[in-house]
Amino acid sequence: MLKILFMGTPDFAATSLKALLQAGYPVVGVVTQPDQPAGRGGKLRPSPVKEVALAHGLPLFQPRRLRRPEVVAQLKELGSDLTVVVAYGQILSKEALAISPLGSVNVHASLLPRWRGAAPIQRAIMAGDTETGVCTMWMDEGMDTGDVCLTARIPIGPDDTGGELHDRLAQLGAELLLETVRRIEAGDAPRIPQPAHGVTYAAKLERSDELIDWSRPARDLHNQVRALNPWPGAYTTGPKGTLKIWRTSVVPNPRPDAEPGTVVELVKREGFVVATGDGGLLVREVQPAGKGRMDAQSFVNGGGARVGTRFSG
């Protein structure tokens, strides 16, 4: 079996690493990002990939800069046949891409060339896409520009959240990776150049992506809310401060003349409807500042919203 050098960091990558280990592939080394501070105390937290590596006693590397010649030389000494990269978090140099004789393959959570870049899952939902998938790709020095090896597609449901889609794509990506590695072993792995048309970029999520602009159509806001659930969350500002909104539905606006951001209806046992630039947004789950997530009916019962309440963004 091929000896694998694995590079990855988050949960999405850990799923692929586990699949390789369960399939019996010898992983000669794992490269992941340095531990990051987390929580109010700022305690360093290992990445999900590091936790898998430690649990299996795998050689672990956490370079701050993978591009450094001494780091590349150290990884070459591991004697890997193939490098697998899944959401690692650093750009690989030409030298790093060539550490393994068979090159480097990547698992990317989109249908390339659509949504190259850092946040393909969230951007696909925010754009209202009804289909996405996973590609395995032969890596080059560009941003997700290499030849595609294999592709798998899945639908995006109208209410799928970023977290739900992430988990499905992580599993799909792990399965596709195993098939890719088998094809590489067999010597018949495809190399399909990406077309020049249809290229879009999934820019890294910024704080501005989280703010709800009520002048936009309700459908766009629904897509924003579900894309950012469970992280980092979409928010608005109301009479009681910042309010994160976690679950919504698109509904008719009973008061089309109302200013966007105005609560126009209370729906018993479901939540409250806010006027938007086009249609109404039924808010179903929220999180007031300093509190946990709650259903919108509980928020209404606590005086958080009534007809006429204004939210701004």
Short description:
The protein is built from 8 helices and 17 strands. With 313 residues, it is of the alpha/beta class. Helix 1 packs parallel to helix 6 (162-186).
Q: Can you describe this structure?
A:
The protein has helices at 11-22, 48-55, 69-76, 94-97, 120-126, 162-186, 218-227, 296-301, and strands at residues 4-8, 27-31, 36-38, 43-45, 60-61, 82-86, 104-108, 116-117, 131-138, 148-155, 201-202, 234-238, 241-251, 263-267, 271-275, 280-288, 294-295. With 313 residues, the chain is α/β, with parallel strands linked by helices. The strands form four sheets. Strands 5-2-1-6-7-9-10 form a seven-stranded mixed beta sheet. Strands 12, 13, 14, 15, 16 and 17 form a six-stranded antiparallel beta sheet that branches. The protein has a two-stranded antiparallel sheet with strand order 3-4. The protein starts with a strand and ends in a 12-residue tail after the last helix. 41% of the residues are buried. The mean pLDDT is 97.
Uncertain parts? none
The percent of residues in helical segments reads 25-40%
Topology, number of strands: 17
Q: Given the helix and strand composition, which structural class is it?
A: alpha/beta
Can you list the strand order of the major beta sheet? 5-2-1-6-7-9-10
Please summarize the sheet with the most strands: 7 strands, mixed
The mean pLDDT is 97
Query: What is the strand content?
Result: 25-35%
The arrangement of helices and strands along the chain is EHEEEHEHEHEEHEEHEHEEEEEEH
| H/I helix tally | 8
What would the principal axes of the Cα set say about the shape?
elongated
The CA-CA distance between the termini, in Å, is 55 Å
Rounded to the nearest angstrom, the radius of gyration is 22 Å
Oligomer: single chain
